Amino acid sequence: MIVIAGWIELDPIKRDQGLIDAKPYIDAALEEPGCRAYTWTADVQVSNRIWVYELWDDEDSLAFHFAEAPYKDMGAHLGICGITGSEISKFRVDLEEPVYDPTGTPRADFFTA
């Protein structure tokens, strides 16, 4: 699994409408093969920031996404919204476990491995 996570900063006047107008691109990504999650949210503490969170099954799924028109169109859309900065990373997940153990206790350690 691959996690994409990070932030994009936009012109604060255009951020909220930019998120609303991005819905068709987000919806298209969610329909792509291997996409488990794809969401952008407004940061309630930083007026010009949106948070990006995506989950992909594998590199092939992510490569397919990057080659599709909605991804390219999203880039153009963000340009119109006045990008002022971004920091987005990808993470390859090699182990997945629940946060809570069978007793409902949150665990920082990987307890089932």
Automatic annotation (TrEMBL):
<protein>
    <recommendedName>
        <fullName>ABM domain-containing protein</fullName>
    </recommendedName>
</protein>
<feature type="domain" description="ABM">
    <location>
        <begin position="2"/>
        <end position="91"/>
    </location>
</feature>
<dbReference type="InterPro" id="IPR007138">
    <property type="entry name" value="ABM_dom"/>
</dbReference>
<dbReference type="InterPro" id="IPR011008">
    <property type="entry name" value="Dimeric_a/b-barrel"/>
</dbReference>
<dbReference type="Pfam" id="PF03992">
    <property type="entry name" value="ABM"/>
</dbReference>
